[in-house]
Structures are given as C-alpha cells and as structure tokens.
Design goal:
The protein is α+β, with helices and mostly antiparallel strands and 228 residues long. Helix content is 38%, strand content 13%. Helix 1 crosses helix 5 and helix 2 packs across helix 5. It binds the ligand Cc1cc2c(cc1C)N(C[C@H](O)[C@H](O)[C@H](O)COP(=O)(O)O)c1[nH]c(=O)[nH]c(=O)c1N2. The site of ligand FNR has 12 residues, from strand 3 and helix 7.
C-alpha cells in the first residue's frame, strides 16, 4: 500500500474517552490464556482478518514485520499437533521435581483439538535484508517483534469475545515438519483460537495453585538494578 504523499504526516494524537481508556485496561486485565473453555463455533473470516490485522499492526524492529501467520483449520493437522504436544508434555512432566509432577500432569495446557482454529506465528529473520535498523546489535529483536504481534492479537481477541491459548510444549521439528516450515524460519507461537463464554477471573495457573502473581513493587527498581 502506498502512502498518500499529500496527506499531512503528523495528525492530532486524539484523546481516549474515559470509556475507551477503561476498555483498553479491561482487555489487558481480563485477557486469559485459554485451554478448555473453547466453544466449537467456527470463526467468521472477517473476524480472523481483524485479529490478524491487529497482529500486523504491532511494532517491529526497523519496521521489519518479520511475522507470518499459518491459519490452521484442518482437524487432521490439529490432531497431529496435539499428538506432538502429548509426546512433549510427557517429557515435560519428567523435568519437574517429583512433588510437582502429579500437579503438572493434572494441568490442562492446551486446547488444540477443542479450539476450531489454530494460528502458528513464525518469524522470518531475513524479511528486511541483512542489516536492519535497531537489530544491528541484537539479532533476537526480530523474535521480540513477533511476540508483540502475538500480544496484539491476544488483546484484540479478548475484545472480540475470542479466547486465545499459547501452546509451546512441542519439539520444534514436529511442528516444522507438520506445517512444512523451512529451517531458516523461526517458529514463535502456536495459538489456539475460538469463541469463549467463560474465562478464569485470574490466571488459571494461579487459580489452580501452581504459581501466584508476583507483587509489582518487588519487580520495579529505581535508577539501579536491585534498588527499591
Ligand atoms: C511464551 C509463552 C508460552 C506459553 C504461554 C505463555 C507464553 C507467553 N502459556 C500461557 C501462560 O501459562 C499464561 O499466560 C500464564 O499462566 C498467565 O496466565 P494468563 O495468560 O494471564 O491467563 C502457555 N499455556 C499453556 O497452557 N501451555 C503452554 O504451552 C503455554 N506456553
């Protein structure tokens, strides 16, 4: 898309009404990682386009826009992804200390088959050539940018009544093979996406006693690492 050369480059920032502002914070505060609450209703194409548009509006290093979105509806592909998850999840359980293992196994950590749609988000490190503004001294900023796209999608989905669940318990090679992703492309996220009518009031891992939200004051330093 070409920019209109006659349009003013700077426009008034505009104000958010109190209601607008509250809506943004409400989306942020009530966004949840969804695993089991997905409804089977299919997502209309225009809705999916809006979510992808929100993702594509994310900031990116040097305006690199390194993302791709693989939209997966085929139940056979989702079934195969679930099998890959199951294999990795069995291995994952073994990595936790014995006292935590049973609890880990009791957690639901994906909604791959229940959600009618999955979106695999990838990062192309070569999208903007070998030298990119802002990435010259930290090559990982391409992935950071892609994660910003995921978060935009997640928040837009919340406002649309759509739940999103991020699944990362996979062997990279399994997903690469399943979706035909070339080696040079980085797999960033597998997102389960679907309508929801109920959400946990707090992170499910907190509700289930796995881990609680940390006090913000402990995470904020003044002027120097460790100084509060
Ligand atoms: C990079 C990354 C990877 C994962 C996640 C998140 C992120 C950011 N989360 C979701 C995670 O558990 C969740 O965000 C936290 O527990 C906080 O809960 P809310 O997102 O606030 O509901 C997640 N959840 C899950 O059930 N299975 C998973 O494999 C993953 N993987």
């Amino acid at each position: 898309m070409q920019l209109d050369p006659f349009a003013p480059a700077l426009v008034p920032a505009g104000e958010f009404s109190e209601h607008d502002r509250a809506s943004v914070y409400r989306a942020i505060e009530t966004r949840r990682d969804v695993r089991d609450q997905f409804l089977p209703d299919p997502l209309p194409d225009d809705l999916v386009s809006r979510l992808l548009g929100a993702a594509h509006a994310a900031p990116s290093v040097g305006f690199m826009q390194p993302w791709n979105f693989i939209v997966i509806r085929d139940p056979k592909v989702r079934q195969a992804a679930w099998q890959a998850f199951s294999r990795a999840n069995k291995e994952a359980a073994e990595m936790f200390e014995e006292e935590r293992r049973d609890m880990y196994r009791s957690l639901k950590l994906e909604g791959i088959r229940k959600a009618p749609l999955s979106i695999c988000v990838t990062c192309d490190p070569d999208r903007a050539g070998p030298v990119v503004i802002g990435r010259t001294h930290n090559p990982r900023t391409d992935v950071y940018s892609t994660v910003c796209a995921v978060q935009n999608l997640w928040l837009a989905a919340r406002a649309e009544g759509i739940g999103v669940g991020w699944v990362s318990i996979f062997h990279d090679a399994d997903i690469r093979e399943l979706l035909g992703i070339p080696e040079r492309i980085e797999i960033v996220a597998w997102l389960c996406v679907g309508y929801v009518d109920q959400l946990y009031h707090a992170p499910e891992l907190a509700v289930k006693g796995w881990r609680q939200r940390l006090p913000l004051e402990e995470l904020v330093f003044c002027d120097r690492w460790g100084s509060q």
